[in-house]
Design goal:
single chain, about 200 residues, mainly alpha, Arc Repressor Mutant, subunit A, Tetracycline Repressor, domain 2, 2 domains, about 75% helix, elongated, disordered N terminus
C-alpha cells in the first residue's frame, strides 16, 4: 500500500474538518440542529458518514465545534470594541447590525439554535444563557461608565438600557432574517443607537 507523502495527512485532515464545520453551519442554520442529519452534513461536505464520524463522533460534538468556531469569529469582531469603554463602546454598537449582516449564515445559526434550545436545559441552552448575560453585562458597564463620566444622564438605569439594546438588536436580527434582508439591521441599529444617545445625553433636560 502506498503511503501518503510526508506532511500531507494533517493538512488534508484539517481541510476535511473545516469542510464538515462549514457544511454543518449551513445546514444547522437552514434546518436546525434537529432537522439536519449527520448523513446530510457528510454529503454536503463531500465525505462519507465514516469520514465525518472520524472527526466528530456524535452530532452533539459537531454542534459544539460549530458553536466554538462561531464564537471565535464573533470574538474577532468584538476585538474592535474590546478596548473601548463607556460612550465610545455604545457608539460602536451602532455598527453591530452591519457586523451581523456581514455573516448571514452565522447570524441565522444563532437565531435557529437559540430558539431550538430556549428552555430545554441543555448544554447549548446554558451556552446561550451565559452569552446573553455576558453581552448585557458589557453593555450595562458601558452605560454606567458613560453616566459616571457625564456623557449620559446620571439617572439612567444601566441594566435596563443594556437589556433594551440587546432586545432591539435581537428584534432587528429576526426581522432581517424573516424579511430576506428587506429590513436592514445596519440601518435600524444605527438609528436606534443615535436616537438613544441623543435622548440620554446629559445635556437633555
Amino acid at each position: 500500500m502506498t503511503s501518503s507523502p510526508p506532511g500531507t495527512r494533517q493538512p488534508r485532515g484539517r481541510a476535511r474538518r473545516t469542510a464538515v464545520l462549514e457544511a454543518a453551519r449551513r445546514l444547522f442554520s437552514r434546518q436546525g440542529f434537529k432537522g439536519a442529519s449527520l448523513a446530510a452534513i457528510a454529503q454536503e461536505a463531500g465525505l462519507t458518514d465514516a469520514g465525518l464520524l472520524y472527526h466528530f463522533p456524535t452530532k452533539n460534538h459537531l454542534l459544539l465545534a460549530v458553536i466554538a468556531e462561531g464564537d471565535r469569529e464573533q470574538d474577532e469582531t468584538l476585538e474592535q470594541v474590546r478596548d473601548a469603554r463607556g460612550l465610545p463602546l455604545l457608539l460602536r454598537m451602532a455598527e453591530f447590525g452591519a457586523d451581523l449582516e456581514a455573516d448571514p449564515i452565522l447570524t441565522a445559526l444563532d437565531v435557529t439554535l437559540s430558539a431550538e434550545h430556549l428552555q430545554d436545559g441543555s448544554e447549548i441552552n446554558a451556552y446561550f444563557v451565559q452569552r446573553y448575560e455576558s453581552f448585557r453585562a458589557m453593555l450595562a458597564e458601558a452605560f454606567r461608565e458613560a453616566a459616571q463620566a457625564g456623557d449620559l444622564r446620571a439617572d439612567l438605569d444601566p441594566d435596563l438600557e443594556a437589556a433594551n439594546m440587546t432586545a432591539v438588536l435581537d428584534g432587528l436580527r429576526l426581522q432581517w432574517l424573516l424579511s430576506g434582508g428587506a429590513v436592514s439591521m445596519a440601518d435600524g441599529m444605527r438609528a436606534y443607537v443615535q436616537g438613544l444617545i441623543k435622548g440620554l445625553s446629559a445635556s437633555q433636560p
